[in-house]
């Protein structure tokens, strides 16, 4: 192709050089702190002088995660209304600034920064996927603000600026394994979606299995949202394990359980222990496909306690009798109350004061009393194994002896020593 | 040996799902060069048709039989509207139809979310189709046998219509050479509308059938779309034969890759195979020889 | 106005005005947070300029620009992660997310990325080379039109799935939590402003390159290939090569945009580069005017801004708006905003019809 240096090409070089030089000049003129130097922390703009104080509620209201996260938004709003009705925090009414994370980590980071820097919120509640949390974490650290994250997750994280009110692995996965071992399970088959939580969970399960003499007969991953399970279910069937540990996410569960029932597998001969199926998801899978299967959480709508009765009643009164409550919703509901209690204890909305006062703050929650651990910013939680019943709800068949101390890095488990380096 | 047979059966059943999803696309893409990105949403419409019919009828078996023809009509009607309102204006801009129909798909998806809610809904499987059949040492779920049968039926029906009916002859004439067909007195506009009706109707049928194995949610259609397009591309423009072979081949390929590596890598592997394959046969598996330059 | 901008003096005036706005007015008027957002949008605009070249001028509808954007972004992110790790733990230290995933040793393919020079070279060369290879494979065999569009889309899907499966690249979570950018602390607002200037400089440079390509003989050839590929071939040119160049330049732009995007936004994950984000890149270009030079830039900025502004108040309405924008703009105004003036003057004009045929 003939491409002689025409006047245009020389012009190209000139234009390029000019723009680059201009940008370079300005960029170097604007250099800030280098690695290792102390930077001036951004001043917090939280305004506590008026009668109200703002908090952020950041959940995906559009996109694939909207299914789950809108329920969390409702629970947060309910808790805020309760706190306000009880006189507010430090005598101030709480005002929610709601934002849409759009199921995209970058949007979560952007909106978190907006909430902190433009809306000047005192704390943010929300996030669901680990990807969204990881995206927001540096924003909260750099701007020295607070995030309350309400979903069970894969552990191995602790930030000064995040409070984790959902379960970490030793409050969900390990109790589930303890339960299976107790009921005589000697071999497992692992099925999960291909992302971080299932992979970390399965690493823990493998280590646990090795230490406790359980045989892992297979480990399969499908792409997120995949609905093609014929190969995997046939492999599960021929492996003939005592139980299946399921870390699939979202729509994949529907296809998996249908295929599972279709090849003739039942809860009686090979139970499936799931960690991502709560009250909300059962309807879409179809109760007839999943009845009798197990789930591991900290909370079910059917938990019997005065606090839960009040929570369920209040929620149904606000959002409709046909709605159900689930574990992440309860954790989100708790997070608002825990924040309010911490602020009251600290006597201040300032981030440093809240962090300092957090240790030992407790809330009488629907799942039982939860207490914040000041070291790792997680909370104590009671583990519960639930069985899915014909009415679509989950009923507790086993629960831990009281709340379990959070141990995100699994430091208290010898067999887990090789899993991760602690920070 | 068992594993191999199992793979083959899985390939066949995955292939028949792909085929159901791709058959309608192959028709519309082949004839009009329209890349209908809303095809996935038409499939989703079929899924929700099955859901609504089941809510009304109650019995899962009866409702499935009723939903299949209704799904065809719902999908077909949506296709007709799309063709009449938008695609007709975009005749000589095939790439633009791709983007326009993507926009339509977005709107339909959000509409489904607003009407039926974001969570997946449950469509019960009829009693007769529950459980599996032991075949050559592996268990094949009855739902998959049903889908295979339906795919065979759909392909046969389309082939018969194209071959033996006057309407089919006109469709083939326009697919072969639009200008020549018009000079022969065929109203290509009406043929286009008819093709789009059939093609979109097939999406509706596919949707109804897919409720047997997958979930029914606003994003259901999306997950089948790209694979369906790959089938059409690999099969060759407008060739039903090509779509059949390509669907089964891709299904089998996916199953084999999946056994020896992970499901994720299988997807990537299939893509690489298709790019390499297009090197050998840029016009797809079976080419329709025309004298036009395009 | 348009005619004036075609002259040499007009071009320089245009650039000067753009520079004044980007380097002068914007930093003065916008808060730090909004300036950061604008920087992010400028990255999308850089991708859009490339798409304008490949699609608007070359007729290649690339639905897979997320692949190249992602490549640039991940390459940069790998450098930032290794640099962070070295700063904390010395040479060969393992980035934090790998420790958590149980990876004890730095994978071999990560090691070279501790060098800034290597990283920048990789960002410029790797995606471009990949685009050239893929382009040769596809265009030489005369795969075009819808076939090419679907292939490029499948590529984006496959690439995202591949990344999700790579634990050593952060898997589904992607790479995040960067502290330093070539030695500068990212948390410092002054450095964030520096990143904005870099994004603005990149955008101006990219527009300059696109402008020169359009005005050169190559640019004429590209349009000729778009409108009548066979005739160009009969004239003795290799149409495939012409297309490959435009495709590769678009890939290069996307890669650079991705590389600048990462330190500004602080995360890159497969969610930002799959099939849907890749198509969304197209929306701005279509709205602004695919065949014009400035149209894609304006369109991309407008769409990104509208998304942020609208989704704050009406999340579900924004999805409808996106869908309807696709339908209305492409069906009724294929030349985009850039063509409004000429459409209004003579309706319908011959020129827009030709451009619409792309």
UniProtKB/TrEMBL annotation, chain A:
Residues 1-35 form the signal peptide. SUPFAM superfamilies: Periplasmic binding protein-like I. It holds the Pfam family Peripla_BP_5. Keywords: Signal. One of its GO terms (biological process) is amino acid transport. NCBIfam families: urea_ABC_UrtA. This is Urea-binding protein. The lineage of its organism: Bacteria, Bacillati, Actinomycetota, Actinomycetes, Glycomycetales.
From TrEMBL, chain B:
One of its GO terms (cellular component) is plasma membrane. It comes from the Bacteria. One of its GO terms (biological process) is amino acid transport. Keywords: Amino-acid transport, Cell membrane, Membrane, Transmembrane, Transmembrane helix, Transport. The chain crosses the membrane at residues 64-87, 145-162, 196-216, 228-253, 260-280. Pfam families: BPD_transp_2. GO terms for molecular function: transmembrane transporter activity. InterPro entries: ABC_transp_permease (IPR001851), ABC_UrtB_bac (IPR017779), BCAA_transport_permease (IPR052157). It is a multi-pass membrane protein. The keyword NADP does not apply. Belongs to the binding-protein-dependent transport system permease family. LivHM subfamily. This is Urea ABC transporter membrane protein. It comes from Glycomyces sambucus.
From TrEMBL, chain C:
The keyword Nucleotidyltransferase does not apply. The chain crosses the membrane at residues 12-30, 36-55, 62-80, 117-139, 146-165, 194-213, 234-254, 260-286, 293-311, 323-344. Keywords: Cell membrane, Membrane, Transmembrane, Transmembrane helix. One of its GO terms (molecular function) is branched-chain amino acid transmembrane transporter activity. It is a multi-pass membrane protein. One of its GO terms (cellular component) is plasma membrane. It is found in: Cell membrane. This is Urea ABC transporter membrane protein. The keyword Magnesium does not apply. Its main location: membrane.
